[in-house]
Design goal:
This is ATP/GTP-binding protein. About 1% of the residues have low confidence. A five-stranded parallel β-sheet has the order 3-4-5-2-6, sandwiched between helices. A three-stranded antiparallel β-sheet has the order 1-7-8. It is elongated, with a radius of gyration of 39 Å. It contains 41 helices and ten strands. Helix 23 packs antiparallel against helix 24, helix 29 runs antiparallel to helix 30 and helix 40 crosses helix 41. Strand 9 and strand 10 form a beta hairpin.
């Protein structure tokens, strides 16, 4: 505990309530401070270190940056206390330094009234505790003071502003130290009676003495730039260079152990903005001119000193000057969010009664999750808890809200253009500078480029767009009434959403053709924007066609709505979202569930004709997988009659249905008129394989794969290759290995469960007849794959797995087992005769008569010819 939380203390009359300013963790930041201190000590004690070297790169600054309310000031106060060896958190290990650490925290907040003069004076006041003379600095500072504060005694000033400097225990001794220094200098340069009131005359005499190298000013003559500073105009510009003299004086202090001053510059964002940098330029000069002092800077933004694009705005810039600050360098440390556990711990320790947490565990968990680790949110939630508690017992529903204060703090130091960019960014789950600029309606990207440098904007280099807002900030922006003077109206939000939606569509259309990652990313966010803001389908229709064309099926569920605005209905956008989600999820959920979802979309009749055909076509495909042949045929026929975009695939579907029903001549006739759009080669391959034409089937699937590759359709290429591997797994296991490997390679980045099962069955078929291995016996492995197929709802593939088992028994000449398996296949065959040809093939492989009741098949050749082809396959496998 760092002390009492006074706001909470005055929010309740309950005297049993113990309110504390809770501090949580931050071990990584303390570790960084310890590491920087060790490095700083090594630097200043190294042979050859020169405090007056103004050209050497600087590594004496650490920047702690983070969004407003993340706990930077609390961290700075805790670091100061710990460095002073008082009230150090138990989880922070003590420092192991052979030096005297002298912490100096300076609050640069506007409310604290900090300016350059107070910063420089604070530095001098802090070192009074050393009780050592600082002659170079004191002489120059006395001259400046005499000019800047004519007639005002320093002691009177310190007394009048005692609240600003009360933290420095020896502050009152500074005027006396200055007088002693001036008296000593006056004696050395033979200027009788020179006191503070005659500092200018004394400084001029001292400058001449230093230039003449008089032995009486030996203590000052080592400071190479002292004479120049004593002769310069005593204004603010000069004041910003005086820390160089203080650094020189500190370097002359010798004792049992080195003195290591640590200056904590807190609330650094209040020194100005990215355009007005006057105070920042002065402070940077202070840091540069005091290389023997470690500076810990804390503010909302990372320091830009190591960037090249601020040349001219600051004195020293770029990675050569500040190697630790370049980009996201090792000295730029983000003060990040609390973990969920730390958030709950914070809430538990913040308000207690008799040592027990006041806030209930379930509410603590709710607030920890909603805060996304943002301490400001937790702090506001504590005050909300006390507010509700005054009239009743708080419940979970009392915290189903966001806080306008969070938005106010976030926007506090943003320009109007940056605030518009922030609101526009909230519309996106992830975004780029260009997307935000377009959504905000800004003429230039400058505001968005500045925005992404703010700490509440996180980066993910693995994302399609690298930036995203802190979740608590985004949720508050979308769900809380904005009280800013330039707050957006409901129409403003709608117009911005429409611009964002259009920008996503433009980005997809202008992207690299066939870029699936971009397509899916645009669809996910585009669907969410259209859903939440009631926009028309527009480019989403063409995006849906592109998504289905490749048969890849990446997850496509759009982000959940973060607003509490109008509820979504079963309009076109909602139905398209459900359609695409169902198509993607059919690779992960049972086919009956997919069929129900697609049937609901079709029955709504609110999609445009082309999308309605899409829904009907894929519903018919799922019905075919489920053995609902009649319904599938009716759906495919309806799509064909519509003569739209899905007519060719639907004709392929009808050809598949003819094959499923054992009418191979009809299926082949239909296949020859399908063309590429109807995947003619793949349909032909299925037909030739069933008829025992293995070479022709393998060739057809190879042609299908090649054609798909030429059209850059990954999913179709992988599907065709898996089928080719399956054919060769049966017919030519020696060649099958490479084909199986290729199929697995093509399938690896995709989500195609049926094709994945085909590749697995190909591998098992290639091993048919083999003895048990470390992986287990083959029948057991086939059974495992069959169970997975059944769980996926891909019933037709279960018969294919059974066929592999028949092949295994047949190659091993286990006629009894083969015959029993054929009989089981007949018993499990779907009613109506679908896939009856597979039972025929099983009987051919097992060299058994056809089971009773099996329906006839129209083969492309005579039944005896087809039987002979499958029988000879077994004989070849036995003798191989």
């Amino acid at each position: 505990m760092a002390g009492k939380d006074l706001r909470a203390l005055f929010a309740s009359n309950d005297r049993d309530l113990d309110v504390a300013d809770a501090f949580t963790n931050r071990e990584a930041q303390w570790g960084a401070v310890a590491s920087a201190l060790a490095a700083q000590l090594h630097t200043v004690t190294a042979r050859g270190f020169d405090v007056q070297d103004v050209e050497a790169p600087r590594d004496n600054v650490v920047c702690f940056h983070g969004t407003g309310g993340i706990g930077k000031s609390t961290l700075a106060r805790r670091i100061e206390a710990s460095l002073a060896d008082r009230d150090r958190p138990a989880q922070w290990p003590p420092l192991q330094l052979a030096a005297r650490v002298l912490p100096i925290r300076i609050d640069l907040a506007r409310a604290a009234g900090a300016d350059l003069e107070r910063v420089v004076l604070s530095l001098r006041l802090a070192v009074t505790v050393l009780q050592r003379p600082m002659p170079a600095f004191d002489l120059a500072f006395a001259r400046y003071w005499e000019q800047a504060h004519p007639g005002e005694d320093l002691q009177d000033y310190l007394h009048r502003t005692s609240s600003a400097f009360a933290r420095f225990a020896d502050a009152t001794s500074l005027p006396e130290q200055l007088k002693d220094t001036l008296a000593d200098v006056a004696q050395a340069v033979a200027v009788p009676g020179a006191v503070v009131g005659a500092a200018a005359r004394l400084a001029s005499a001292a400058a001449r003495a230093v230039r003449e190298r008089r032995s009486t000013v030996r203590a000052l003559s080592g400071c190479a730039r002292l004479a120049d500073l004593l002769e310069a105009e005593p204004d603010t510009e000069l004041l910003s260079y005086l820390p160089h003299l203080l650094a020189y004086d500190l370097a002359q202090v010798h004792g049992k152990e080195p003195v290591l001053p640590v200056v904590l510059l807190d609330t650094f964002e209040d020194t100005g903005d990215r355009i007005h940098r006057d105070l920042e330029r002065y402070l940077q000069r202070v840091v540069w001119l005091m290389p023997n002092v470690l500076f810990l800077v804390s503010g909302r933004n990372r320091l830009q000193w190591g960037d090249q694009d601020v040349v001219g705005q600051l004195d020293w810039t770029g990675p050569a000057a500040w190697p630790g600050l370049a980009g996201a360098g090792r000295r730029q440390l983000l003060v990040g969010d609390f973990t969920a556990a730390d958030s709950e711990d914070y809430l538990a320790r913040r308000l207690t009664v008799a040592g027990r947490p006041l806030i209930e565990a379930n509410i603590r968990a709710q607030l920890a999750a909603r805060s996304a680790g943002l301490p400001l949110y937790l702090d506001l939630a504590v005050m909300r808890y006390l507010e509700v508690r005054r009239t009743r017992t708080p419940s979970s529903e009392d915290f189903d809200m966001d806080f306008a204060a969070l938005i106010a703090r976030t926007m506090a130091d943003l320009t109007p253009e940056e605030r518009d960019a922030l609101r526009a960014a909230a519309l996106f789950e992830e975004f780029s500078i260009a997307l935000v600029t377009a959504a905000a309606g800004l003429p230039q990207e400058a505001a968005a480029a500045r925005l992404v440098q703010r700490p509440f904007v996180d980066q993910d280099l693995a994302g399609q767009w690298r930036y995203h807002l802190h979740r608590a900030v985004r949720t508050a922006l979308l769900g809380t009434a904005d009280t800013s003077d330039d707050a957006w109206s409901e129409r403003d939000w709608h117009n911005a959403a429409a611009r964002a939606f259009t920008a996503l569509g433009t980005e997809w259309k202008q992207g690299v053709p066939g870029d699936r990652r971009l397509l899916v990313a645009c669809l996910r966010q585009g669907l969410a924007l259209a859903r939440d803001h009631r926009l028309d389908l527009d480019w989403l229709e063409h995006g849906a066609f592109a998504y289905t064309a490749d048969s890849v099926w990446e997850p496509l569920t759009p982000p959940a709505a973060l607003t509490t605005g109008p509820s979504t209905d079963q309009g076109p956008v909602a139905l398209l979202t459900e359609l695409l989600s169902a198509l993607a999820r059919r690779q992960h959920e049972p086919r009956p569930r997919t069929a129900d979802r697609l049937q609901a979309v079709v029955d709504a009749h609110r999609l445009p004709p082309a999308l309605q055909d899409m829904a009907l076509y894929y519903l018919a495909k799922v019905q075919r997988d489920l053995g609902r042949t009649a319904a599938s045929a009716a759906g495919m026929a309806a799509v064909v009659d519509g003569a739209g975009r899905y007519a060719a695939p639907a004709r392929r579907g009808l050809a598949h249905l003819a094959r499923i029903q054992g009418d191979f001549p009809t299926a082949l006739e239909m296949a020859q008129h399908l063309g590429w759009e109807g995947r003619h080669h793949r349909v032909e391959g299925d037909i030739w394989w069933a008829n025992g034409e293995f070479t022709r089937a393998a060739g057809a699937f190879r042609s299908a794969r090649t054609e798909a590759e030429q059209h850059r359709v990954q999913g179709e290429a992988a599907t065709a290759q898996a089928l080719r591997a399956l054919v060769l797994g049966f017919a030519d296991p020696d060649r099958a290995g490479d084909e199986i490997d290729l199929a697995e390679q093509l399938l690896r980045p995709l989500v195609l469960r049926a094709s994945g099962f085909n590749a697995a069955l190909a591998a098992l078929a290639a091993q048919a007849g083999s003895a048990p291995t470390e992986q287990g016996d083959l029948p057991g492995r086939i059974a495992a794959v069959r169970a997975q197929i059944q769980a996926a709802g891909l019933e037709p593939l279960t018969a294919q797995a059974d066929l592999v088992l028949v092949l295994h028994h047949a190659v091993r000449s286990d006629h009894t087992a083969a015959a029993e398996q054929v009989e089981r296949m007949q018993q499990q065959a779907p009613p109506g005769g679908d896939h009856a040809y597979l039972v025929h093939i099983a009987a051919f492989l097992a060299d058994q008569p056809l089971p009773d009741g099996v329906l006839p098949v129209r083969w492309l050749a005579s039944q005896d010819t087809v039987r002979d082809r499958w029988s000879r396959l077994v004989e070849r496998r036995r003798t191989a």
